[in-house]
Amino acid sequence: MGSPIRPSHKVFPNPTKKQLTVWIEPTKVAQPSGQYLFELYDIHGKRCFSIEIDSGSSDLDLPPLNPAMYYYAISQSQKIKHRGKLLIAE
Fold this sequence. Notes:
- 0% of the residues lie in helices and 53% in strands.
- By secondary structure, the chain is an all-beta fold.
- It has a single domain, classed as Immunoglobulin-like (Sandwich).
């Protein structure tokens, strides 16, 4: 018996201005809604945005952010599943 497959994640477009789509491939194991947490941090590590999302596609409206490089984390049950960089354009 194999272990569950780790979900695949996509965050786009990158760069972006005000809106973002986060896609998380659903797993074969049933999970409750709001299972994932998407967080956005500035280069100093200050959290700028946080929202609970479900697997599948989530369209997010970002708060007003200065054009810069940001870092995101997608976590589940307080364990980070994916990290990446996001460029906020002018």
